[in-house]
Amino acid sequence: MSLRTLLLLSVFLCLSMPGVVEARLWTVGPSGRDYTQLSALFNANNLAPGDIVEVDGNATYTSVVVGDDDGGAAGNPVIIRWRSAVGATRPVLQGGTHTIKFQRSNHVVFEGFEVRGGTSTCVFSEAHDVTVRDAVIHACPGHGILGADLNSGSFTLEYSEIYDAGSGSTRHPIYMQSDEIAYPGSVFRMRYNYIHNGNGGNLLKNRHERAEIHSNWFEASAFQEIELIGPDCETQASGWTRATRREDAELLNNVIVHTSATWPHAIRIGGDLNGESDGSVRMVGNTIVFDRPGAATAVYVQLGVGSVEMHNNAIFQTGGAAPAILRENTTADTPVCAPFVTTPWSGARSVFGTRNWIQSTATSVPPEWTGTVTGGDPGFRDVAARNFRPLTTSPLRNAGSNRPPSPAAFPMPWPLPLVLFDPPLRIKPAIGDHRPRIPQGYFTVDIGALEEFDIDSLIGPFELPASPSRVRPRPPPNAVSPASAPSRRLRPVRVRER
Question: Does any domain span residue 10?
């Protein structure tokens, strides 16, 4: 039998097998499409793995539920995306209790939308393996993004902007949790996002089993920028106990700007009255800036954290003050659920750190740290303009460690990844438009989230194909801030992520 005949026979057998369904392209738009509303499409059909839904821009759509009969498969998701066209604005999803809800619809990608106005949440995930990409989420009177206590697993948020969300002390721009009974080992990945100007809560409240928070810009929360704690003990699935899982988190290469005049902490870890983490927190290469008067705390430890390690972080407060670096809450609060942990640490105090920069007058500096760099000024280019790249004279330059050591006594469950890209600089990046961090891997890394030079200043600005045009002028020699010269288009630089 010839090779051609075998191939044809294979194709025939695959197509004739029960359960094999060809993926379908669905279209949604004001006219000339399969449906005029996303909600009508999902109400009338059961989507299958590999199906793609393309939605026209320049239009507003009502809220939608993606149901349990609309999911994909591992490695073959259902994709719901903006049908981008030159000059078109994003499709807008608006209103409803949950503007978009993933209701046990596992393996779904949601890409390119503007989402606003959900009275409870703008994005509600009660599913596993959901990716929200290239989204603008705002005008959310409740939560911006909420991960359910039950039936939720891995979630990825990337290349997105979230602002004008949250309310009071219990509704947050981002609030993530996973179901450790239904989806053990799930991961929350958050990278290349701009999260800012929250109206309530924390910019990120995280109860997820494993959180990888890499290369984001956080600024202007109502309370903490970031809270990393354990699951809500009152809402877990049957059979869950505090011993089921520990909750580990990694903050890598983020810019965190705390401006709240009423709340002193930038980051809180360990637990609240509803749940302790018992896990490790690793913080590497972050820039934490307090632009507020009065007392401030970089990392506030309370109610049951396992360990903390910190490397290559730059922590600075403006106005002549200096923050507490790692402060413990020793108040004897009584948690809701047993076993009651009233101490900051779930066991013995476990702290490790190397090559961090802090002000000489900072307090609560961990005595366990080594190689700490101190001074009066970190030498940022322009704090008021939020340009946190080091000046040539900065003590941050070449002062970090390319491969920070991990503590043998309490190691993280996964190895430390290389930092290859900058966080977005107060802008929502296009998909794939993360700028390489240099000179990581070739010279000694700078302390903090940003190197002295960005790639545009060295080779000139470039744009990805089909990305929104932007002006990133090349500064003149020895300039502190960019000049207002027109940009020029170069061929994209290809950088391989490892």
Answer: no
Do 291 and 317 sit in the same domain of this protein?
yes
For the chain, give the mean pLDDT: 89
Instruction: Tell me the one-letter amino acid at 190.
Output: M
Q: How far apart are CA 161 and CA 114, in angstroms?
A: 10
234, 307: one domain: yes
Beta carbons within 8 Å of 357's beta carbon, 6+ residues apart? 313, 314, 315, 316, 372, 373, 374, 375, 378, 395, 396, 399, 447, 448
Q: Is the pLDDT of residue 457 over 90?
A: no
Indicate the pairing of strand 287-290 with strand 314-317: parallel
Domain hosting 279: range is 212-453
Contacts by residues 384-389 (CB-CB < 8 Å, ≥ 24 positions apart):
385/481, 386/219, 386/257, 386/425, 386/426, 387/481, 388/255, 388/287, 388/289, 388/314, 388/448, 388/449, 388/450, 389/450, 389/451, 389/452, 389/453, 389/454
Residue 9 domain-assigned?
no
Separation of alpha carbons 291 and 313, rounded Å? 17
Q: 230 in a domain, yes or no?
A: yes
Q: Is the domain of 490 the same as that of 432? A: no
Longest Cα–Cα distance of the chain, Å, equals: 83
pTM of the model: 0.88
Q: Are residues 354 and 473 located together in one domain of the fold?
A: no
CA distance 466 to 11: 36
380 and 443 belong to one structural domain: yes
Whether the predicted pLDDT of 76 surpasses 50:
yes
Q: Are 289 and 256 in contact (CB under 8 A)?
A: yes
Q: Does position 454 have pLDDT exceeding 60, yes or no?
A: yes
Count of other CB atoms within 10 angstroms of residue 334: 7
Measured CA to CA in angstroms, residue 19 lies from 15, 16, 106, 107, 372 at distances of 9, 9, 19, 18, 61
Q: Which residues pair with 276 in a beta bridge?
A: 271
Burial class from Cβ neighbours inside 10 Å (0-12, 13-18, 19+) for residue 158 reads buried
Q: How many domains does the chain have?
A: 2
Classify residue 203 by its DSSP letter: S
d(CA 193, CA 42): 29
